[in-house]
Backbone:
């Protein structure tokens, strides 16, 4: 029975569903949870910004450990377990500094294994889309449950569910197919500093890191302040969960159809599309006060943009980075995401305190336009092999 479980579709379903369920249950209404225990907008920004600081240390190191040990599943499972412990401890403290530390460690650990999850999906014998869709389903369900638990049971109980989901996700890791090891992996003989130095000398990769910094910085802040914008316009916490639930479901058709366009469309065009999507989203938030319009914009654009960027990151990094550095490159890209979150959280918090949330999104609209301009400058020769088609025709 154990042999049948290894490499099975069920193992991937468990891993992706409960990994993203854990992420969703912890993060989807974090700003509302913190507001509910008496934290101001500036305090919320301070606590949430911790992810960037801690990720600068954890994500490149986790990527380096995976390249060095060639044991991605073991390293990822240990990292996830650490996230589960720090996440459940979160409910016992209200001190800003302790919440800052615990939030930072928890999400930094979770985000550190995200690139490996994506590689496990593309490395399996199943098509990427029919595996990855379970992540969208898990996050969607978590967003809905988080709001209902918050309103009808206890806000703290969400963190208990988070820990349970982490454990189930680790069980899923056990059955997935190991990522193939490159026996000529030159990064195994290099130090942590030498690997990072080699990557940052890659001009195309460096430019992509800048785009990652901008894109994920803004979308990270959006995750923090969008629930507050919706409740400010008259929506309840449960409605926030329902909106995010339907917004996440929009990812599923994109994921399922990924093999039809991601291997064929250039990375530059995909980057431009991603920035156009968030440009439309943020301009709607900044210029239109109707709650219904905000809901429609969120459902259509929020998860679509972030999901596209996750898949684009995998495609672009594999195209522009040597194969021996891919895990480290994906980890550094995740660090760029975290740094973007840190900087934009701090700036965004100040804008909201000085002005309002609509002004924050007006600022993001112009930054999105800048991202489109930079995307036109990207030169990515060729397309990766059938990355999203699966190794077999399952």
Residues:
């Amino acid at each position: 029975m154990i042999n049948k479980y290894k490499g099975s579709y069920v193992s991937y379903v468990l891993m992706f569903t409960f990994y993203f369920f854990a992420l969703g249950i912890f993060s989807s209404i974090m700003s509302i949870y913190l507001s509910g225990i008496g934290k101001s907008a500036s305090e919320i920004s301070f606590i949430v910004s911790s992810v960037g600081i801690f990720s600068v240390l954890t994500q490149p190191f986790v990527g380096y450990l995976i390249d060095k040990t060639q044991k991605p599943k073991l390293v990822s499972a240990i990292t996830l377990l650490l996230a589960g412990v720090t996440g459940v401890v979160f409910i016992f403290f209200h001190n800003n500094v302790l919440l800052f530390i615990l939030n930072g460690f928890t999400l930094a650990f979770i985000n550190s294994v995200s690139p490996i999850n994506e590689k496990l999906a593309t490395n399996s014998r199943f098509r990427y889309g029919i595996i990855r869709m379970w992540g969208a389903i898990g996050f969607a369900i978590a967003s809905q449950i988080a709001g209902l638990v918050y309103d009808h049971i206890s806000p703290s109980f969400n963190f208990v569910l988070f820990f349970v989901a982490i454990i189930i996700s680790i069980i899923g890791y056990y059955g997935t197919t190991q990522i193939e090891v490159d026996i000529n992996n030159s990064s195994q003989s290099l130090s942590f500093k030498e690997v990072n130095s080699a990557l940052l000398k890659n001009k195309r990769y460096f430019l992509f890191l800048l785009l990652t910094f901008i894109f994920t910085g803004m979308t990270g802040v959006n995750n923090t302040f969008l629930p507050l914008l919706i409740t400010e316009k008259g929506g309840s916490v449960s409605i926030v969960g329902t909106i995010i639930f339907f917004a996440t479901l929009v990812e599923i058709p994109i994921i399922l159809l990924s093999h039809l366009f991601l291997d064929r469309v250039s990375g530059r065009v995909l980057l431009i599309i991603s920035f156009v999507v968030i440009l439309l989203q943020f301009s709607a938030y900044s210029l239109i006060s109707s709650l219904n319009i905000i809901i429609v914009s969120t459902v259509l654009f929020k998860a679509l943009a972030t999901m596209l960027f996750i898949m684009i990151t995998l495609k672009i990094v594999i195209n522009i980075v040597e194969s021996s550095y891919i895990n480290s490159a994906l980890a550094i890209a995740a660090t760029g995401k975290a740094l973007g979150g840190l900087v934009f959280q701090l700036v965004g918090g100040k804008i909201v305190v000085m002005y309002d949330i609509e002004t924050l999104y007006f600022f993001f609209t112009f930054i999105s336009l800048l991202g489109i301009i930079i995307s036109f400058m990207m030169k990515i020769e060729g397309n990766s092999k059938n990355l999203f088609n699966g190794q077999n025709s399952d």
The first helix runs from residue 2 to 5. The mean pLDDT is 80.
